[in-house]
Amino acid sequence: MIQLGLSGFYHDSAAALVIDGKVIAAIEEEKLSGIKHDSSFPFKAIQWVLDYTHITIDEVDMVCWYEEPSLKFKRVKKSITGNWKDFLINSANGKWKGFLKRWSQGEGNISGILESIGYDGVVVYTKHHLSHLAFSYYTSPFDSAIGVSVDGVGEEETILATLCRDGKFQELTRVTFPNSLGLVYSAFTAYLGFKPNEGEYKVMGLAPYGDATKYEYVFEKIEKYDRLGELLQINEKYFTYKKSENDMFNQNLIDLIGFLPRFKDEPIEQHHKDLSAALQKWYEKIFYFILNRVNSNWSSPNLVLGGGCAYNGTANGKIKEHTNFKNVWIPFAPSDAGSAIGACLYHWHITFGNPKVKGGDNQSPYLGPEWNDNELFDIITKTNNGVRIQFIGDDSELCKVVANLIKDGNIVGWFQGRTEFGARALGNRSILGNPHLPDIRDRINKVVKKREMFRPFAPTVTFEDYQNYFKSEEAVPYMNQVVNVVSKIPIPSVTHVDNSARIQTIKREQNPLYYDLLREFEKLTGTPILLNTSFNLKDHTMTNTPQKAIWTFLNCDMDYLVLGNYLISK
Ligand SMILES: [Fe+2]
User: Fold this and answer.
1) How far is the CA of 508 from the centre of ligand 1 (A)?
2) Ligand 1: distance of its center to the CA of 11 in Å?
3) 153 alpha carbon to ligand 1 midpoint, in Å?
4) CA of residue 387 to ligand 1 center, whole Å
5) Does domain 2-129+339-351 have CATH number 3.30.420.40?
6) Å from CA of 473 to ligand 1 middle
7) Is 373-569 in the same CATH topology as 2-129+339-351?
8) In angstroms, what is the span from residue 555 Cα to ligand 1's centroid?
9) Helix orientation angle between 336-346 and 128-139, rounded to the nearest 10 degrees
10) Distance 125 CA to ligand 1 centre (A)
């Protein structure tokens, strides 16, 4: 069976091609369009997954859309037209007309859009959170688990918790719009001068610099804990995201906080850091409360997480400290991009009754395009930009040479194999550096990625050794948990101000070349750890093609670029 999984029209559009339950190819639209968090219909991604697999659109048996548009329509209609006074007197009428127009050209017309590219077959829709949880559960190593999807909003639910057992889902509880952990986090992200659905990482990075107690009172006002049996009730008085996705808060919130919202180019001051800290602390409090409440009825040691909020690595890293869960699984793309895969897996297992694969399946994030050495050579020579090229055909020799360069303080672009699916560079589209050198972090922030100086960098560490350096009881293969650094040898360029790090643990079978590079680095320095950050400049999408890798290399102060077996220097 050939399934084409799709997500789009909110953020992180993507396409995935799945054959008999195996993900063969997947890519986010943004990696092809260059538009960050591209939410448009994933035409380019569809074309690429079909080209890669040599499958034509009429050979696809089923298109799996990642949510239920009809249910989402009801929620949006209620939000915009719910108050008749507002609807008649204020701007709601215009908003509704605008929404109807967008809807009829987009989510309300998925079949029509597919017809325009030659597909007139079956289209199935899966509820938003079930697509998230299907991706999380079926890829997980657990036979049974509690599944929790935490998001901005799906159709109506903002959080869905299920039992995941015998390959099926059974709902435990839900939280509904406008009570949303994700949307409140995004509203404060906007307040702090960052872009919602994108700048949340920056807020997380700022939080450790702040004093949460300074703004705790804000969060005491905006949420009502467990009121009327609900898991989360947000005081709507402060927020406007119910009516508009672009306008998330109002004057009441400004009055409550006591300082004006920050514009994006204004300096970041201590009160911004303090508010970030208070927000993150509040998020964690609610998050653990919900996890504990869900697990109190049907106790399980296993948790699978999904939804955009599952990128909150700081909260994820402390789940075991604050709950009874012993094992946590978060897939490589827990936000809406991953739901393109999740929607396919849901139908493969639920509709067609295929059992869950024991130990999990589809765990490789390397699902995008790749180029062989001949193709790379053509591309490098065609760019004709005066770079020096050295071919090192033997992989172990290549690892030795690159490990030496990194040890000596060079910053190296590392472009290998297939592009990762998801927001994280996991060793195929990465910029690498020496974690021991204290100035590497500032250098990469300042002259390579050209981004905010406060932002931390993450380490990759070999699976067999991670506990010597980081306080974590389990592997973190997709860099989605922040844990404490316990290394006796300083690794300053990957240690955040609060002694934490968002780690990636790696086994050789997950990425042999990258693993071997870590081992070569260990021979030189004693530690199998590298600084690993995504291969892109600030405000650019993660590098996908060799052309973009070369452009990026030439437009920043990166020292070396490794494209396959080619070592390139300026
Ligand atoms: Fe989502």
Assistant:
1) 31
2) 9
3) 7
4) 43
5) yes
6) 28
7) no
8) 34
9) 80
10) 14
* 185 CA to centre of ligand 1 in angstroms: 14
Among residues 567, 562, 516, the alpha carbon closest in space to that of 415 is found at 562
Could you tell me the CA-to-CA distances from 500 to 142, 458, 530, 532 in Å, in that order?
28, 10, 15, 15
Answer whether 455's CB lies under 8 Å from 202's CB.
yes
Q: 76 alpha carbon to ligand 1 midpoint, in Å?
A: 16
How remote is the CA of residue 129 from the centroid of ligand 1, in Å? 7
Largest CA distance in the chain: 73
Q: How far is the CA of 530 from the centre of ligand 1 (A)?
A: 31
Domain coordinates of the chain in residue numbers?
A: 2-129+339-351, 145-330, 373-569
Cα(306) to centroid(ligand 1), Å: 8
Question: How many residues does this entry show for the chain?
Answer: 570
Beta carbons of 92 and 81 less than 8 angstroms apart: yes
Going from the Cα of 394 to the center of ligand 1, the distance in angstroms, rounded, reads 43
Looking at residue 84, its pLDDT comes to 58
User: How many Cβ atoms are within 10 Å of 389's Cβ, its own excluded?
Assistant: 14
HEC sequence for 495-527: CCCCCEEEEEEECHHHCHHHHHHHHHHHHHHCC
How many C-beta atoms surround the C-beta of residue 245 within 10 A? 16
Q: Would you give the DSSP letter of residue 197?
A: T
**What whole-number distance in Å separates Cα of residue 434 and Cα of residue 494?**
9
Packing angle between helix 546-554 and helix 373-383, nearest 10 degrees? 40
The superfamily CATH assigns to domain 145-330 is: ATPase, nucleotide binding domain (3.30.420.40)
Q: How far is the CA of 308 from the centre of ligand 1 (A)?
A: 6
Contacts 24+ apart (CB under 8 A), 541-544: 541/30, 541/31, 541/33, 541/34, 541/35, 541/36, 542/31, 542/419, 542/420, 542/423, 542/425, 542/429, 543/415, 543/429, 544/27, 544/31, 544/32, 544/368, 544/369, 544/419, 544/429
Dist. CA 74 → ligand 1 center (Å): 17
pLDDT along the chain (570 residues), means of 10: 96 96 98 95 98 98 96 81 60 72 88 96 97 98 97 93 96 92 94 91 93 96 70 89 78 95 93 97 94 86 96 95 96 97 98 96 98 94 85 97 98 98 97 95 85 84 97 94 95 93 97 98 98 93 96 94 96
CB 13 within 8 A of CB 110: no
CATH of range 373-569; options 3.10.20.30, 3.40.50.300, 3.80.30.20, 3.90.870.20:
3.90.870.20
Centroid of ligand 1 to alpha carbon of 538 (angstroms): 24
- Ligand 1 centroid to Cα of residue 67, in Å, is 9
Look up the pTM and report it: 0.94
Q: How far is the CA of 175 from the centre of ligand 1 (A)?
A: 14
